[in-house]
Amino acid sequence: MSVKKVIVGNIVCGNEELFLISGPCVIEDEMTMMKTAEKLKEVSARMNIPIIYKSSFLKDNRSNLSYYDGPGLDKGLKILAKVKEQFGFTLLTDIHYPDQAAPAGEVCDVLQIPAYLCMQSGLLVAAAKTGKVVNIKHGQFLAPDNMKHPVGKVVAAGNDQIILTERGYTMGYNDLIVDPRSFYHMAQIGYPVVFDITHSIRKYGIPSADAKGGAREFLPVLSRAGVAAGVDGIFIETHPEPEKALCDAASQLCVYDLEEFLKPLIELHAIEVKYRN
Known about the structure:
Layout: E1 6-8, E2 11-13, E3 19-23, H1 30-47, E4 51-54, H2 73-87, E5 90-94, H3 101-107, E6 110-113, H4 121-129, E7 133-137, H5 148-156, E8 162-166, E9 169-170, E10 176-177, H6 181-187, E11 193-196, H7 197-200, H8 219-228, E12 233-239, E13 253-254, H9 258-276
Parallel strand pairs: 3-4, 3-12, 4-5, 5-6, 6-7, 7-8, 8-11, 11-12, 12-13
Antiparallel strand pairs: 1-2, 9-10
Subcellular location: Cytoplasm
Pfam families: DAHP_synth_1
Organism: Nemorincola caseinilytica
């Protein structure tokens, strides 16, 4: 089945060119955001891989009210706008409530629907009506082919610029399992598929600052499996000092290690495309 090409700025998602969604999990201070963007710009040019810059102004699903959840809509969007102005990135951010869609769409090129909220009709419709690309994350509770239902809501609201992102299924307690079959099933819906690698290694129920809150040792093998399975893009949260990150400290990749991490993935993707054709 052919996959619809989705345009994000000057990036064509679904055209056999691997693309990357990357940036800090949540918007922190402006210096952290700019340092990450500067290195991502360098990696994009050196590796010839298009990058959509990602960061969240709000993480409304933190497991404890005392945990940092972001600077909020207004301050967060101002920082993202500076990233776009200074580095020319297209931008992606999460929205959690319908009234966030319009203001976020004024700054960002992609509005992301969190996995837990992927069936929320009002949120999907509000995102769709902005006319921006909508990235729907696969809920841990849905079979992959059932992602056709949130896709259908966005299309019914008049928007067919959609990306689907896999991040794993809940398996047992506090663990996520990535089933490579899901990439195939989601691709059959007809839209570009992204593999969110860094969220797939999170250990739920464990604070993200705890070293046990993520399993970075699985990042290489999971990323290779996803690229070999034919995903169109990869999602890797990055930070200049992951161990000091205010969210997902145990799972983000150091942005200064990203280039070496990408090398085998780009080579593997080229082989996958060759044999796909």
